[in-house]
Structures are given as structure tokens and as C-alpha cells.
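DATA SHEET
Item: assembly model
Revision: 1
Owner: S.N.
Input lines:
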Amino acid sequence: MVLRELPLSAIKPRAPLLKLKTLIMRDHVKRHNFADQEVTTRALKYIARNTELPMRARMEAQLQLVSMPNYTRFTQVKNRCILSGKGKGVFRDFRLCRFLFRTEALKGNLPGVKRASW
Amino acid sequence: MTSLLRALSPSLRNISITPYKSILGLSRQGQIRLNSNKPVREVEATELPQSIKANLYSSKYTHSNTTERVPDSGHPLPINVEANYYAPLRVEVPTHADHVGTLTLRGHESETLDFYMDFLLRACYYLKMPIIGPRFLKKKRELWTVTRAHFVHSKSKQNFERITLGRQLKIMNTNPEVVQLFFGLARRYAPAGVSIRADLFDFEHLGVGKRMTDIKLSTDRTDVQEPKYEHFGTDKNADVAQRVRELLEDPVFKKHLKKEE
């Protein structure tokens, strides 16, 4: 009841801190899938590479590895900027892309990071 | 900060507790000075319960002969408050001493590090710990150069840096329990922006190697399943070994194993 009386501008929400982007979500799914299947993948790799096991068993393990879904491989995972979702120019230390690193550093949000001159 | 003051000297409870900036001012490296002009609230001994009164130091130990007086009340300064005017006292380190622990502080601001190290040095003195240091560790400087604009090929750049400073304290000839107490204190009162690393060394008698063989290592998987061992070793851990066993017992793999044999 009270909400209706308020002007529209008052109800307008603030912009969310984290922009949820498709690519960030996809990367998140990949990381989860990898974590779920990690033990199985490593076990299959162990069997496939163990020269003491019979060749057919090793081949079977290799076939099972190949037939696993693509999103269970760690090579699919990519470090992305946590604010903008950019996939290139991301600093590992801050998990931010170069441009957002600059803006956050100038705001003083990154502890210890200062303007440098020499 | 009030708790820091209390830890610094038990007699300080006689002084009214005011915010940090009004009581203490950092003038030079390793020196704290009292700047307070606030009125002092006296606690009469009759207010205190008997159990506390029995443990109080006599004025012989808590009051100095200084001409300086606590404002308004006219009492002489307690001796451990007066000690704050001077560089921290130290316990003498003997020529041949055992190195029992190391405390390393890291941070980005030298003022914070020096102030906290000063506090720790005083704590060391009251715990009667002989110490060497603080040693200044080599500073770590990280540099980043980014373009001012978001456009990739923009020519104008901007430099950023992060300098990590370090101070290290070597603790000698102290009972491990006291060292751990000191580490606990250091962790409890750590200000924001200071990271602490504590190393405790243990000493054994000669012939440890022979005794090590008698220790039976547990083969129980529950030992290895604890979270701190979860990522210990990427390829071969208890979970993977269990999964390999399960897979090889699977009929898909079992038929191959049987045929070869």
C-alpha cells in the first residue's frame, strides 16, 4: 500500500554490484562440472597410463575419458574478470581486467595499491 | 585499542579510557608518547572485590619516582605507563641461545607495522622473552602498467605499484608454551592490514631417526579425508585410489583383466 504512494523514482533499485553475465555463469558451470568429475577423471587417467594393466583395460579407460562431456575438462576453464566478465587482460592477483583494476585502484579499493612514478 | 592498552599495563585501568588518537600519538619510529589531557577517573580500592585486591601490585612496583604527575589527581605516573615514553625494554640475549620461534609481520604501511611491533616488543619484555630484532625484511614491490582508457591500443599509460613491507622477530630461549601464548596475543590484537606468520620450532633429543621407525602410520582413510589433506597431491590421493579400485571391479574393466590372465 505504501509502495504505491511512492513515486517510481523512489522504488528504482540501485545497480547490482556484480553484473551477472552469461560467460561468467558458463565458466562457473564448467568449474563445478570439473570439480564433480575430477576424481573419476584422475582415476581413469591413472588406469589408462598404468603400463602394468592389460592393454584392453587401458584402452577402455581411454575411451571412457574421451566420451566424457566437454565441460568436465579443466582446459575449458578460463579466468574471467569478476566484475565485467572479460576473458582477456585479467590480472590473476585481483581477478579483475586491466581497466577495472585501474578504476578500483584509483578508488582505493585494492589494499596497498598506489599510483607509481619513478 | 582499549584492549591493547589494558594488555600493555594493568595499571592503566585507573585512567579513563578514551579513543586511541587522543591518548596515544605516534611521534617517531618505535616511540609512543602520552598526549592525554583528559580528566582521570580514580578507582578506589574499596570498590574492588577482595579476590582482585589480593592480586594487585603494590605501589612500589606500579608507581615511579618521576616528577611527572597524572593531571588533576596529582598521583605519580605508574611505572609501566612511564615506560611508554621510552624505547621498549629488552631481556638480554645470552651468547649461546636457542632459536625457538619466529614472528613475521607483513603489511603495506610502515607506520602500522612499526606501531604494532613496538607493542609486541613490550609484550616480549613482560613475558621475559629474549628476542633478536625486529629485522627489516626485503620489501616486495609489484608493478602494473595499464592503459588509462579502456581501448586496447590507447597510447597513454598509468603505473601502479604495491609494496609489501616486512618485520621479523626471532625469539630465543623461551618455553614453547610461552611462545604460543605470545603468538596468540600477537594474533588477537593484530590491527587491520597486518598479516602475521608464526613459526614455532621444536627440539628433540639425539636418536630421533631411530624412534621415528617405531611410529605406526595410520592406514585409516578417515585420517586422510580431513579437509586440510583434501588437495594434498593432485594425482594420487585416497579418493582417487578408491575410485580406481571401484572402476577395476566394474564388469566393463573386469572382463579385460580376466582375459589377459
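QC remark: Residues 4 and 89 of chain A are 46 Å apart (CA to CA).
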